[in-house]
Amino acid sequence: MPKPNKKGDGATNADARVDIPDPIKDELLRRCKRVCCMCFGLRGDTEIKDGQLAHLDRNRTNAHIDNLAYLCLECHKIYDLKSNRVLAYTPGEVRFYRDQLYRHHGHDQVEWTLVVRANRSRYEIVKKAVDEAHSMLRKASMDVTFAEEPLG
Question: Using alpha carbons only, what angle is made at residue 135 by residues 118 and 67, rounded to the nearest 5 degrees?
Fold first, then answer.
């Protein structure tokens, strides 16, 4: 059975917060530009503010970038609020305004570059696999480009 943590807040060591890896933290901060997504969504406020990263599923061990949002200190306090008298911000609400903020900043699309190199002796097998992958990607997204270029 996990031991209670030293903070005395009822959480156990198994619930301990994990450090968010720097590359994830950096990418999230680039996307939001330190603008609180709740202030943006509710008031159109695009001011840079001191803030914290909130775990949308409230699982402090889940540091996946899609589970994180930048909230100013005041909004993070409301998000974490545990009261039956005041309604806290919900994860769905924060996610919705975070996605709006990302669109506002132009971070609502992702682009991948995929390079496949193969020996000429395996051309037919690799070409078939690439064509199948291209077909699958076209079904998932309308904007897929494909080019084949011989090397040397």
Answer: 95
What is the model's pTM? 0.65
3-state secondary structure of 75: helix
**Closest CA relative to residue 123, chosen from 146, 151, 101, 98:** 151
Q: To which H or E segment does residue 97 belong?
A: helix 91-104
Element (H, E) at 52: strand 51-55
Residues facing residue 70 across a β-bridge: 53
User: Which span out of 47-51, 83-87, 123-127, 138-142 was modeled with the highest average pLDDT?
Assistant: 47-51
> What are 62-108's pLDDT values in tens digits?
999 999 999 999 999 999 998 888 899 999 999 999 999 999 998 87
Burial class of residue 148, CB neighbours in 10 A (0-12, 13-18, 19+): exposed
